[in-house]
Amino acid sequence: MSAQLDLDSILEFTINLALEAGEMIRSGQQKRFSSESSNEDEKANSVDLVTEVDKAVEAFITKKIKETYPDHQFIGEETFNGQKITDEPTWIVDPIDGTTNFIHGFPMVATSIGLAVGGVPVIGVIYNPFLDQLYSAAKGKGAYLNRKTKLPITGKSKPLQSLGHALIAVEYGSARSAPQLPSKVKTFQTLAGSPDLGGKMCHSLRSMGSAALNIATVASGGLDMYWEVGCWAWDVCAGICILQEAGGAMFGPKTSSLSGEIDGDLLTGRKYLAVRGIAPSSDETSLQVQQRFAREFY
Ligand code: IPD
Ligand code: CA
Ligand code: CA
Ligand code: CA
Hints:
Strand order of the largest sheet: 3-4-5-6-7-8-9
Largest sheet: 7 strands, mixed
CATH topology of the largest domain: Fructose-1,6-Bisphosphatase, Chain A, domain 1
Order of helices and strands: HEEHEEHEEEEEEHEHEHEEH
Number of strands: 14
Bound molecules: D-MYO-inositol-1-phosphate, calcium ion
CATH architecture of the largest domain: 2-Layer Sandwich
Number of domains: 2
Structural class: alpha+beta
Mean pLDDT: 90
Strand content: 15-25%
CATH superfamily of the largest domain: Fructose-1,6-Bisphosphatase, subunit A, domain 1
């Protein structure tokens, strides 16, 4: 199906849409910060938040997509009602990824717009309006930062010696009750812990509060890996396209499938491991090296 789509023009449309959404996010934050009555609603619990700006940005993105591609399906975080991803072209949108950061004024915030065909992400645009950083990719056409800098920006797939040398992003997410939080924290401790305690003692852990920006940073090479349990399709769809075009691999949602392929039904996948592009060795391809690190991780 993707062969019938003009990915160049869809990418151009998506980039312009993300830039416009970014402007709404910037001005929406200014308005909130200058108002005495701005507040946010709680969704599943007291740390699962949504603002009027999340909803307005999603409404704007939906309207533009429906006007331009009336035959396409649409799934967005704030209007999600249990839709399944079919083989049809489906836009998968997180209007604001990093809502908690947005509310606090921590600048790791992005709009994330992806298009999947047959369950495979073919367009991905992630725009951070506070740092003016635009990550974009179309399947088969490479991934870029601010349209010009080809990803990864750290050089072509620098080697990774071991998990102990890795800089790894992890997130707490909003599911904080048992068994989710203790299980996540156990993984954090194992990754950060001293080898004497059986841990990997990786270089360090980071937690930026935006799944999309974590994936984009793995694509750019600034992070070696990003692991999270609890992501939804809108957190990862655009990022997967960017990551894969930058030579990285996304593992999951089934941890047993380390093929580097994404499971067709993105909505049921809640556990993801992104690994950046890593140089092949004399007897291993890049994907085999990534799979080895993914296995070591689990
Ligand atoms: C969240 C952020 C956060 C991640 C959560 C996501 P939201 O998205 O990406 O970093 O830990 O799993 O739900 O709610 O800000 O769009
Ligand atoms: Ca949310
Ligand atoms: Ca999100
Ligand atoms: Ca969101």
